[in-house]
Structures are given as structure tokens and as C-alpha cells.
Design a protein that fits this description.
Layout: E1 22-27, E2 34-42, E3 48-55, H1 70-85, H2 94-99, H3 102-105, H4 107-119, E4 132-138, E5 141-144, E6 164-169, E7 175-179, E8 184-188, E9 197-201, E10 207-211, E11 218-221, E12 232-239, E13 243-253, H5 256-265, H6 273-283, E14 290-299, E15 304-311, H7 320-323, E16 328-333, E17 339-347, E18 350-362, E19 365-368, E20 376-384, E21 389-398, E22 401-410, E23 415-417, E24 428-434, E25 438-445, E26 453-460, E27 467-468, E28 487-494, E29 500-509, E30 527-539, E31 575-577
Antiparallel strand pairs: 1-30, 2-3, 3-4, 4-5, 6-7, 7-10, 8-9, 10-11, 12-13, 13-14, 14-15, 16-17, 17-18, 18-19, 20-21, 21-22, 22-23, 24-25, 24-31, 25-26, 26-27, 28-29, 29-30
């Protein structure tokens, strides 16, 4: 997402046993309008972007709904049963929603409609809603960054109907992401019917976008193959001498068999064509479109100057090109022009089995570098440093279950290493790597499947063990008695000052879907865990506290004294990272 070369060095004479690094955690800000916040990218000059999720007061349009239809009556009946099982009294009726604007005043009614609409997301006769938005972080303030959403004609504010993946920011603040077109409420009369029905349609399923630093200019990355809107994604951006490089993927064609299904079924008779196309897209495991990893070059004014397809890790046979889609994507790029991501490729034991494996794109080649003979069956490359070292994850069956394991791969040597993580069956991800070989990510802790949760880590290439970032935070609040409020769940970025950006969880007063405080039947305030975007700043001469009880699982503290961690207080040289999707 970003890359910068700094004039910095490691002091070769530094004693590796001098001090242990600890971190100060700072919240980057939370939104009054959303429950959760997450970091997706950070530039060396301090631009921070991310997403917020769990929007309060999502707008609900009830004007078109026939509340006598069984689909909504059955849903309400199920909700009544759930209230009864919880010894609660339901506080609204369908008539209240239809005639008394209950969704604006009654949080239970609002939550019911959100749940109902979410449960029928593939029914395009009902409103589409989305609770995920792009945000810019600035001095503890979150500012929404719309991608494709527009003002609604039915209610105040945006339609809140679009997908919003806000992925990367360049050194000077130009950002990229991808999303869907907003939905329009249209009238459509099926063949054989006399009355028009309400349907929700949109122009495209997904499209990449580039946004200027001040947000005043946005450039859609429309694919050359744009039948039914086509598709494109923008996953990463870096500043270059002449402008910007953006990587992602684009639609290139539709397989013959899928096109036949579209021609046969999407005839604008029973439903609008865009609805039919959306349904088919969700029905095919690989979607409708062949997609290829791509690199766009843009000038300083964000004009697209060139588009380069980066290829696929296999050559489809003639019959295969007719039956199913083949996909590759670029998730990150460094200053050397090396892009990384994932691609369909063949299983080494059976050419008919197609896997999605980590790859890099260099000098016109697509290199599938994970050794399938070691039983790896999938994965993605997520980040690449300026000296061409890749991190990400690969998938393998461990103890009978498919697990993700983080890796690093050195392009120069061709070596791939899967470091030791929290425990043998823990799923782990390498999210970011810098040019000194520090990797940040997250892995599962809690040995039993029912108790597993993610906790963030940092790892130095060449060492044998990851370090849980929670081991490097305080045990207690400043009163010395209250347990520390935050648990680091994900580490997404490490910059050249060794500041780590990611996601922590903390406990707060619970809020309902309208944003009001939730109380139990006795009037006591309830609490919940939320995700917050955070920054970890190294503290010189800090000490690692031992907060784990004696019976704690061994991995929780066994790496706190690693001598290499002292190096994290020094400036490093070059970085780039990727938000995983």
C-alpha cells in the first residue's frame, strides 16, 4: 500500500541484550456512528486509513414493503419466539413498523428490520444495506470516505447500499479501494403480470477507485471488458517518480458456458437483468468473470497512462476456458515493480483440481512458489518488502482441519520458511513485512476450537518464535490493579519508526442498533467487546511485565525476553504492506 526509502541504519555494535522493548497503546479514534473501527493502511508521512463497521441508525425504507407477505410475517414470528425464550417481552408489531415509524424510535424494531434484510440479501425485491464504510483517521477523528455511495432519494443521507473496501494509501495521501455501485429502487413488471413490482438494481458488482489526497477527485478504474458492468479491484498504491502505481485485478471475459447461462436466463422477463446477473455471480463458486491481476500506471493528475495484465499461474485448456472462470489478483506492489497476490493454479497430483495459491509477478512471469508436495493447498501472498521478501499465509490440513500458516519467501534465494507460531494447529497470517525482516500479523490462541481467538504478533526473520504483542503491553491500568483494557487482536502495519498499527478489543457499554445504551431487564447497563483501531509506539528502556498466572499456556510468555526485540527501537529501511481481503 505504501513504500518509502529512508536514510537509516542499524548499529552493528549494539548489544542485543541491552533492553526489552515495550509498547504504548493509543487509540486512533472511534466513531460515534459505528461500533467498530479498523486500520487498513498507514503511510510513512502519517496518512492513516481504515474502515468502520456496525453503523448505528442504518436507514430503513419500509414504504414499498407488503407486510402481509409470509416472508416478513414468518420472520417476525421467529423473533417473537426468540424474545420469549429470553424471557423478554417484544416491544413492537409489524403494524408499528408499517404505520408508526417504529424503526426510527424502537431499537428492537430497527434491529429486527436489519436482521430481516440481512437474512434475505439475495432477494432483490428488498432493500440492500451495508454497515461497512471507509474512513480516514486524523487526530483521533474519523472522517468517512465514500467510495461509490450517493445521496438517497428515499431518506436523508447516503443509500448505505454499497460495498466499501478502503485498502491502501500512498506517501502523499492518494488512496485506493473498491466497492459496488449503489442500488436504485426501480419498478419492474414481470411478463404475464399486470402490476409493477419494486426491485433493487445496480450498475456493477465491484469496481476499483483512486481518490485524491483531499478527496476532491475520484477516478474509477473501469475494466476494458465491462459487460454487465465488469469488475475491477484496487488493492494497493505506491508513489512513483512520475505518478502512481496501482495493482488489483480486472474482468477480462466471461466463460462460454456461463455466458450461455446468462443468455438463457437473464432475459429481462422474470426479473431485471442486473438482478439475474447478480444471482448467477453468487451461484458460481468463482463468479461470472475471468479476472486477471493488473497494474495501472497513473500520472500526477491521476490520469491512467497504462494498464498491464500480469497473467495467470496456469494455462487454461480449451475446454476449461468454456466452463469456469480463472482468476488471479495482485494484492501489493513494491518500488521494484514486483507485485504479489494469488492465482489459480493446478494441483500437482491432479491437473483437473484448481487451487488458489500465493504468487508473485515479476518480469512477465507468474511464479507459484509454495511447494504443494508438502501438502499446501492454498493461500495468498499479502505483503512484500522493498528487498523482495514476501509474507502471507498458506493453507494445510493439520490434525484433520484446514489451517492457515504464515510464511516468508525470499525471491532472491527462492527459500520459503514457515516459522513456528503459537502452536501446531494455530491458524496464523503474516500481514506486513519491512526491509529489516520484521513481520507483523495475528494467530489463533486457545488450544480448543471453541476457545480460539486471534492475538497479534511480531516476528523477526531468522528467529525461531513469534512474540505475542500482548506480552509487550502493560498488565494493568495506571491504578496498578485493574486489568489492562486492551487485547491486541490483529497487527496490520509496521512503519519505519517501528510503530505498529492494528486492531485491539476492549469492553465498553453495549449499544443497540440505534446507538442507545442497552440495559438488562433489571435496568443494569450491559457491556460488550468492540474492535478499535490502535497504534503501538515503542518505549525506550521499557520492561516486559510478567502478568501470566503460573498455569497459563506456555506460548503466552515464552518469547518475551528475545534479544532481537531491542532492534525494534531503531529506525529501519523501507516497508510496504497490504490489508487482507
Amino acid at each position: 500500500m505504501k513504500y518509502k526509502l529512508l536514510a537509516a541504519s542499524i548499529l552493528a555494535t549494539l548489544s542485543t541484550s541491552a533492553i526489552s522493548a515495550t509498547y504504548q497503546l493509543t487509540e486512533l479514534g472511534s466513531s460515534e456512528n459505528a461500533k467498530h473501527s479498523y486500520v487498513t493502511d498507514v503511510s510513512e508521512s502519517g496518512h492513516i486509513i481504515g474502515v468502520a463497521n456496525g453503523l448505528y441508525n442504518l436507514p430503513i425504507d419500509t414504504s414499498y414493503i407488503d407486510f402481509s407477505e409470509s416472508i416478513i410475517k414468518n420472520s417476525y414470528s421467529n423473533t417473537e419466539d426468540a424474545f420469549e425464550l429470553s424471557d423478554k417481552v417484544i416491544t413492537f408489531t409489524l403494524d408499528d413498523i408499517e404505520n408508526n415509524d417504529a424503526v426510527a424510535t424502537n431499537s428492537d424494531a430497527h434491529s429486527f428490520m436489519i436482521s430481516f434484510l440481512s437474512s434475505i440479501s439475495t432477494n432483490f425485491e428488498y432493500q440492500k444495506i451495508s454497515s461497512l464504510i471507509g474512513v480516514n483517521f486524523n487526530d483521533s477523528t474519523l472522517t468517512e470516505q465514500p467510495l461509490f455511495d450517493i445521496a438517497s432519494v428515499d431518506y436523508d443521507g447516503l443509500t448505505r447500499s454499497t460495498t466499501n473496501l478502503y485498502n491502501a494509501v500512498s506517501e502523499d495521501g492518494v488512496s485506493v479501494g473498491w466497492g459496488s455501485a449503489p442500488y436504485d429502487k426501480v419498478l419492474f413488471t414481470p411478463d404475464g403480470d399486470d402490476e409493477a413490482e419494486t426491485w433493487f438494481t445496480h450498475e456493477f458488482i465491484e469496481r476499483g477507485i483512486v481518490i485524491s489526497a483531499d478527496g476532491s477527485i475520484s477516478v474509477e478504474l473501469e475494466p476494458e471488458f465491462n459487460e454487465y458492468g465488469g469488475t475491477s479491484r484496487a488493492n494497493d498504491i505506491i508513489k512513483t517518480n512520475s505518478g502512481y502505481t496501482v495493482v488489483g485485478n480486472v474482468s477480462t471475459s466471461i466463460p462460454v458456458e456461463i455466458q450461455d447461462d446468462i443468455d438463457d436466463g437473464c432475459d429481462n422477463e422474470d426479473e431485471p437483468i442486473s438482478v439475474c446477473v447478480n444471482l448467477l455471480n453468487s451461484n458460481f463458486s468463482r463468479g461470472l468473470f475471468n479476472k486477471r491481476a493488473v497494474k495501472w500506471e497513473l500520472d500526477e493528475s491521476l490520469n491512467i497512462t497504462s494498464v498491464e495484465e500480469l497473467g495467470l499461474a496456469l494455462t487454461p485448456d480449451e475446454g476449461e476456458t468454456e466452463d469456469d472462470a480463472f482468476i488471479s489478483t495482485a494484492l501489493a506492489v513494491n518500488s521494484n515493480g514486483v507485485a504479489i497476490g494469488s492465482s489459480h493454479t493446478r494441483y500437482y497430483k491432479d491437473d483437473d483440481i484448481i487451487l488458489t495459491m500465493p504468487v508473485y509477478y515479476k518480469d512477465g512471469a507468474v511464479v507459484d512458489f509454495i511447494n504443494q508436495e508438502d501438502d499446501w493447498q492454498g493461500g495468498k501472498a499479502l505483503a512484500i518488502s522493498n528487498n523482495d521478501v514476501i509474507t502471507g499465509y498458506a493453507i494445510k490440513r493439520i490434525e484433520g482441519t484446514l489451517r492457515n500458516k504464515f510464511f516468508y519467501h525470499d525471491i532472491a534465494t527462492g527459500n520459503t520458511v514457515f516459522p513456528t507460531d503459537y502452536f501446531s494447529s494455530s491458524s496464523s497470517y503474516g500481514n506486513d513485512i519491512n526491509s529489516q525482516g520484521y513481520i507483523v500479523g495475528e494467530g489463533e490462541v486457545g488450544v480448543s476450537d471453541s476457545s480460539r481467538r486471534k492475538e497479534a504478533f511480531v516476528y523477526k526473520i531468522g528467529e525461531d518464535k513469534i512474540t505475542n504483542l500482548n506480552d509487550l503491553l502493560p498488565c494493568y491500568e495506571t491504578d496498578g490493579e485493574t486489568n489492562y483494557a486492551y487485547t491486541m487482536a490483529e497487527a496490520k502495519v509496521i512503519n519505519e519508526n517501528n510503530e505498529i498499527f492494528g486492531v485491539a478489543t476492549k469492553t465498553v457499554e453495549k449499544r443497540d442498533s440505534l446507538g442507545g445504551i442497552v440495559t438488562d431487564i433489571e435496568g443494569n447497563i450491559e457491556f460488550e467487546s468492540v474492535a478499535v483501531a490502535v497504534k503501538l509506539t515503542p518505549i525506550a528502556n521499557g520492561e516486559v511485565e510478567n502478568c501470566a498466572p503460573p498455569e497459563a499456556e506456555v506460548y503466552e510468555r515464552n518469547s518475551a525476553s528475545f534479544p532481537w526485540f531491542t532492534l525494534l527501537l531503531l529506525p529501519l529501511v523501507g516497508i510496504r504492506r497490504i490489508f487482507r481481503f
